[in-house]
Write a structure and sequence with these properties.
By secondary structure, the chain is of the alpha/beta class. It has helices at residues 56-68, 87-95, 112-122, 136-143, 148-161, 181-191, 210-213, 217-225, 295-300, 306-315, 338-341, and strands spanning 14-15, 21-22, 24-28, 73-77, 102-107, 124-130, 165-171, 194-198, 229-232, 241-248, 251-260, 273-276, 281-283, 291-293. Helix 1 runs parallel beside helix 2 (87-95).
C-alpha cells in the first residue's frame, strides 16, 4: 500500500478551552467484532457498510496528523481491531512515526496467538486484553461467541512476545461474574501482569438494563482489600483510572490493579484524550455528543492536510468540561455503542 502523508505542521499542541493539553488519541479501526459481549453489543448488532468506515490509509493519515500536533500516545481499538483485514499494516505505519512515544492496543485477544509477535515488532508497546471470566462456560455466555481457551492462548503468546505491559480489562456485572474479582486478580498476579476493573457504562442499547447489573468499583475495591493488602499508587494516565499495587509477604508484587470509574467525575479536569470512531468522527468526550466529522475533510482533500489540521485545532474549542452518566435514566446516556466509539 502507498500513501500521501507529507504535511507542514505549524501548531505544536492541542490545548482546549479549559487549558487541558490533548496528547492521547484512541482510534477505533472497525465497529465489527468476532464477539458480542452482552454489555457492549445487542445480539442482532448491525454493522456499518465498508465505504462508511475509514480506510487503513485514512487511519494512518489521521494518526500522523495528530502526532504532528503533539499527540504522543495512540491506542488502537474497535470493535475488535485485530479482525480488520491488514490491520498489521497500520500498526507498522504508525509504529514508525517520529514523535509517537506509545503505540498501544486494546483487544479481546482472540487473534493474538498468531499476531502478538508481529505486533511487538511493529512497535506496539502495551496490550490490554479483555477477559471477564476464567470459567469457559461463563466466558461464552458473556461474550456470546467467544472461546476462553483461544484468548488465554493469545495472552500466553503476548507474554512470550515480551510486551512492556500487559493488562487485563474486566467489566463486572452483578449476578454474572461479580464473584470472580479476586480470582481474576490472583490470575493477574500469577501471570505477572496488571488488571483493571471497568465500571459498566450506559453506551448504546443492550439487552438488559444497566442499573440491574451495575457493580461499583468502590464495592470491588472493598472486596479486594479484604483479601489483599493494596498500596495506593500515585500513577495517573490523565484518565478515569486509579491504581493500587498488590503487596505480598516478600514485598510489593508486580501486579497493578486499576479501577476505571467513569461514573465519578473527578478525572475530567485532567482529561488528556479524544476518541476517533471508525467513521472518522472525532469525539471530544466519551460521555458527550460533541464531535467533528473528519471523514469528509480526508476524502475531499486527498492531497491537502490543512483543512483537517484546522478542524482538529478548532475542535479544542468544543471539548466539554466533563460528562455525566446516570444509570437510572431509561435511555442510554449516549446512543452510540462502545464498539463504535472505541473503548
Ligand atoms: N474488542 C476489544 C476489547 O474487547 O478489548 C476492544 C474494544 S472494546 C469496546 C474496549 C473495552 O471496552 C473492553 O475492555 C470492553 O470490556 C469495554 N466495554 C465495552 N462496552 C462497555 C460498556 N458498556 N461499559 C464499560 N466497558 C465497556
Ligand atoms: Fe467485541 Fe470488545 Fe465489544 Fe466484546 S467488548 S463485543 S470483544 S468490541
Amino acid at each position: 500500500m502507498s500513501m500521501m502523508l507529507d504535511n507542514v505542521i505549524t501548531t505544536p499542541k492541542l490545548i482546549d478551552q479549559f487549558g487541558r493539553t490533548v496528547d492521547y488519541i484512541r482510534l477505533s479501526i472497525t465497529d465489527r467484532c468476532d464477539f458480542r459481549c452482552v454489555y457492549c453489543m445487542s445480539e442482532d448488532m448491525m454493522f456499518l457498510p465498508r465505504n462508511e468506515v475509514l480506510s487503513l490509509e485514512e487511519c494512518a493519515r489521521l494518526v500522523k496528523t495528530f502526532v504532528g500536533l503533539g499527540v504522543s500516545k495512540v491506542r488502537i481499538t474497535g470493535g475488535e481491531p485485530l479482525v480488520r483485514k491488514n490491520a498489521l499494516w497500520l500498526f507498522e505505519e504508525v509504529g514508525q512515526l517520529e514523535g509517537l512515544n506509545e503505540l498501544v492496543l486494546t483487544t479481546n485477544g482472540s487473534q493474538l496467538e498468531s499476531q502478538a509477535s508481529a505486533l511487538k515488532k511493529a512497535g506496539v508497546k502495551r496490550i490490554n486484553i479483555s477477559i471477564d471470566s476464567l470459567k469457559p462456560e461463563r466466558f461464552k455466555k458473556i461474550t456470546r461467541t467467544g472461546n476462553l481457551e483461544q484468548v488465554l492462548a493469545g495472552l500466553q503468546a503476548s507474554i512470550h512476545a515480551g510486551f512492556e505491559g500487559i493488562k487485563l480489562n474486566t467489566v463486572l456485572m452483578r449476578g454474572s461474574n461479580d464473584d470472580e474479582a479476586a480470582d481474576l486478580v490472583q490470575f493477574a498476579i500469577d501471570q505477572k501482569i496488571d488488571i483493571s476493573f471497568i465500571e459498566e457504562m450506559p453506551l448504546g442499547e443492550v439487552d438488559h438494563t444497566r442499573e440491574s447489573t451495575f457493580v461499583s468499583n468502590t464495592d470491588t475495591l472493598k472486596l479486594l482489600q479484604s483479601k489483599y493488602t493494596l498500596l495506593p499508587s500515585t500513577e495517573t494516565t490523565g484518565g478515569p483510572a486509579r491504581y493500587w499495587r498488590v503487596a505480598q509477604n516478600n514485598g510489593e508484587s508486580a501486579t497493578k490493579i486499576g479501577f476505571i470509574s467513569p461514573h465519578s467525575h473527578n478525572f475530567c479536569e485532567s482529561c488528556n484524550r479524544v476518541r476517533i470512531t471508525c467513521k472518522g468522527e472525532l469525539y471530544l468526550c466519551l460521555g458527550q455528543e460533541d464531535k467533528v466529522d473528519l471523514m469528509p475533510l480526508l476524502r475531499q482533500n486527498p492531497n491537502d492536510d490543512a483543512p483537517l489540521i484546522a478542524a482538529i485545532i478548532g475542535s479544542m474549542a468544543i471539548k466539554p468540561k466533563g460528562h455525566d452518566f446516570d444509570l437510572r435514566r431509561a435511555e442510554p446516556a449516549v446512543v452510540r455503542f462502545m464498539s463504535h466509539t472505541g473503548g
